[in-house]
Write a structure and sequence with these properties.
Strand order of the largest sheet: 7-6-5-4-3-2-1-8
Order of helices and strands: EHEHEEHHHHHEHHEHEEH
Helix content: 40-55%
Number of helices: 11
Structural class: alpha/beta
Oligomer: single chain
CATH superfamily of one domain: Metal-dependent hydrolases
CATH topology of one domain: TIM Barrel
CATH architecture of one domain: Alpha-Beta Barrel
Strand content: 15-25%
CATH class of one domain: Alpha Beta
Largest sheet: 8 strands, mixed
């Protein structure tokens, strides 16, 4: 059987529903050869994932997903294979975490102004290490202020909503630079989610490539075959690697099961080999 991989997954260390250990256990059950743990703005789950990978035999590619901006477009950058103990990178991640904490405090204050009492303690109880808007949404449902999490976003938390607070994001070129300094590779996540018409993406990718971008996430559940082919051609044009993943957050929070299936997407193991080859060449280049 052809081995498959999933290079875009989330755990309870950000907004996923499974712990890193449970994620690896599920990956083993689904017969995957490898996964990348790419939690939002944090590396908190990587030590646990790496330890459990030795138990399950599932290879782990250290990863992260960082929200950024370029020319007014919100972009998510995946980092792969970096040194997750690199002091400069950890200082950068702490800065991202502080920006998240500031945003969450702002959301709390706006909800209080609307007469909705949610405490930091309640958020920490359901979120663990990192609080995000999905956790606010779950509490709004629990408190009867929304029918479901989608309703909570629509009513309070979406851009322009009464409790929305802007997420202060770093510039994309800085994110790429920080990942590269930690001996990793930067990959643009789900490009069609940032720019559904793909009108701006060619220019943005050209700019990002000049800044050190290493790859594009061409295989993604909501990317049509046509979009995927477009991104593969764009990657070839710029000498970029290809990546792919399900953006798995847990069965009830994802459109696609971990690792995908024949009806959605499958990510071939060869993409991981290509990424590792580039990482090895990068290490050699940096002496």
């Amino acid at each position: 059987m052809t081995p498959f991989i999933d290079l875009h997954t989330h755990s309870t260390c950000s907004d996923g529903l499974l712990t890193p250990t449970a994620l690896l256990t599920l990956a083993a059950r689904r017969g995957l050869a490898a996964i990348a743990l790419t939690d939002h703005d944090t590396v908190a789950g990587l030590d646990e994932a790496l330890a459990h990978s030795r138990v399950t035999g599932i290879e782990i590619l250290p990863g992260i997903e960082i929200s950024s901006t370029l020319d007014g477009v919100s972009l998510h950058i995946l980092g792969y294979g970096f040194n997750h103990e690199h002091p400069g990178f950890l200082a950068f991640v702490e800065r991202l975490q502080q920006a998240r904490r500031n945003r969450n405090q702002g959301i709390l204050e706006r909800l209080h102004a609307l007469g909705i009492s949610i405490t930091s303690e309640e958020l920490a109880q359901i979120a663990g290490d990192q609080v995000g808007r999905p956790h606010f949404a779950r509490l709004l449902v629990q408190k009867g202020r929304a029918k479901n999490t989608q309703d909570a976003f629509s009513r309070y938390l979406k851009r322009g909503g009464p409790a929305f607070v802007e997420h202060v994001k770093p510039q994309a070129h800085e994110v790429i630079s920080r990942i590269t300094e930690a001996n990793g590779l930067a990959v643009l996540a789900h490009p069609a989610c940032s720019d559904p018409g793909l009108e701006k993406i060619p220019d943005l990718v050209a700019q990002l490539t000049d800044c050190g971008l290493a790859g594009l996430e061409a295989i993604y559940p909501t990317h049509s075959k046509k979009v995927s082919r477009f991104l593969q051609a764009l990657a070839a044009q710029h000498g970029l690697l290809l990546s792919g993943g399900t953006d798995y957050h847990g069965d009830t929070h994802s459109v696609t099961p971990l690792g995908g299936n024949t009806k959605t997407i499958r990510v071939p193991l060869q993409l991981l080999h290509d990424i590792k080859q580039r990482l090895e060449n990068t290490d050699v280049g940096q002496g």
